[in-house]
Structure formats: C-alpha cells, structure tokens
Design brief:
about 65% helix, single chain, elongated, mainly alpha
Length: about 180
C-alpha cells in the first residue's frame, strides 16, 4: 500500500484560494460590508478549527465542522455577489472538506505553489528553454536548489562539493532521510 500523500488522484482544493474569492468582494453599503466581514470571519474560524482537527481528529468533530461549512455557505445575504461566491464554495464542499476524511492532507497548497514560483517567473522572463536538454537541466537545478533550501544545506556548497568531489556534503538521499530518521 502506498503512503497517503502519494495518492495523486485525490483532489483537494486550497482554502486560501477559495477564500480569496470572498476577499476580492467589496460591499457597496454598510450592510453588505458587515455581511461580508461576518462571512469571512466565520470562514477563517472554520479554517482554524479544521487545522486543529487535523492535529487531533475526533469522530464527533467531523459532522459539526461539516454543519458549520453548510451554514456558512447556505447563508442568504442582501449581497447577491456574496451569495453567488458562497454557492460556488458550497459546490466544492467535498474537495474543501476532504481533510475530515484525510487529516494528513494539507488545507492549502501554498508550499507547492512556492516550489514552482521561481520556475514560472523565469519561464515568463526568458520564454522557456530552447531544447529538451535545456529544460531538463533547468528543472534539475531548480529541484536541487529547492531541495537544498528545504534541507538547510547551502546550494552552492552542495554544487561545489560535487564538482570538486570533496565528499564533505553527504549524498542527497542521506540528507533527505536524516530528518525522517530523527522523528
């Protein structure tokens, strides 16, 4: 059986992106602004409670968190655009609340997005690579740089060690295993 984090067929939606739709709304009067503020406060409270649930899941908490999600999304406001955004959020309920079934899954994908952000910026600036070898080289170095950074190993130190064959920096598989073995 494969570790759960490698089940790529599970589709989890990012709460940060789901709430961003609400963050972009602007109420046109005091009532709408108040309704929007109350909804956003309730969404972030639910998000915090989902994070707490992930640390200590209980069977009793699951239906309560799902009920709160429904209550937020089914609230009818005087603000039609807010109602529409909540309806859209409710359509994505299964993917947003997947953490109730799988507490090991993240509620947001900001770490994954951060991993590819540098690559996307470079691609926009340069227009990409000219060859398959260029793409493979770029991808390899970006991956090594990101992995080194996550492991708190100097990327340049790692590269210099490999080029000069000093052997001062352990092989990458050993560096990756060390944090897992110390837990």
């Amino acid at each position: 059986m494969c570790a759960g984090q490698f089940n790529v067929l599970l589709h989890v939606l990012c709460w940060i992106h789901a709430e961003r739709i609400l963050a972009k709304l602007t109420g046109f009067n005091g009532t709408q602004r108040n309704e929007l503020r109350q909804i956003r406060t309730a969404v972030w409270k639910l998000y915090r409670d989902l994070k707490a649930y992930q640390k200590k899941p209980t069977p009793e908490a699951k239906p309560e968190l799902a009920r709160r999600f429904n209550k937020i999304c089914e609230t009818q406001n005087s603000f039609a655009t807010l109602n529409s955004a909540l309806k859209r959020m409710h359509k994505n309920k299964a993917e947003l609340l997947l953490a109730l079934e799988r507490p090991d899954l993240p509620l947001h994908n900001n770490l994954s997005e951060g991993d590819i952000r540098e690559y996307v910026k470079r691609r926009k600036i340069s227009g990409g690579t000219r060859s398959e070898n260029g793409r493979m080289g770029r991808d390899t170095f970006v991956s090594l740089k990101k992995t080194s950074r996550k492991l708190k190993v100097s990327f340049w130190g790692f590269l210099n060690d490999r080029i000069r064959k000093n052997g001062a920096v352990p092989p990458l598989p050993c560096l990756i295993e060390q944090p897992a073995l110390s837990e």
